[in-house]
Amino acid sequence: MDQGMLLAALLTTMGTIFVAELTDKDALFLLALATKTRASVVFVAGSVAFTITTAIIVVLGSLLIAVVPVTAIKLAGGSIMLAYAVLEYYRFSNEERREDGREERLLERSGRGVWSILVPAVLTLIALDLAGDATELLTVVFLARYQDALVVFAGAVIGLVAAVAVETALGNRLGRVLSRKRIKYLSMAIFTIIGVTVIVTTLFGA
At 77, is the secondary structure helix, strand, or coil? Predict the structure, then answer.
């Protein structure tokens, strides 16, 4: 790809993953922590965790692309995004109590020092991300589309870290705007749009 195409790929990856992360399950976890403990600790935890998980997904995605046709990956990714839109309706209500429990356990450690909450927060975010996450799927789809691991990795990490910065900086204010109910419906809308876009552009070569 030439420089113009590389920049377009970087910005597209960054912007899409930024928006998707703001409406993902990780957002609820980060927002809750940011309202109850130091924002700087939450920002570092999110940035470290998402850099690690993005590196893992880019490596695995690159291996997948080497053995599976790119078109099949794109179509499968778009279809799964549409399935995510349906499953989002049920996911938040089922995970709400589990996430609240994680937050309480982490906050119980906050009085023992920064490391006692930073390390568990990083590990929890990694587990949440690798357990099944929309941004992971988007990363693989972008790898299939652009076939440039470095650009996709950079775009994904920048988008994720930017989302973490917004969540931790705005804290309570963003938490009031992005309630669980609103995140649920925003997620459904975003996943539907992304899924349809991926399928249409793949089928019609846009």
Answer: helix
DSSP 109-150: TGGG-HHHHHHHHHHHHHHHHHTS-HHHHHHHHHHHHH--HH
Structural domain that includes position 13: 3-204
CA distances from 181 to 32, 67, 99, 175 (A): 15, 40, 15, 11
The residue behind tokens 């993953």 is 17
Structural domains counted in the chain: 1
pLDDT single digits (tens) 8-65: 889 989 998 998 887 777 777 787 777 777 888 889 999 999 999 999 999 998 998 8
* pTM, full prediction: 0.77
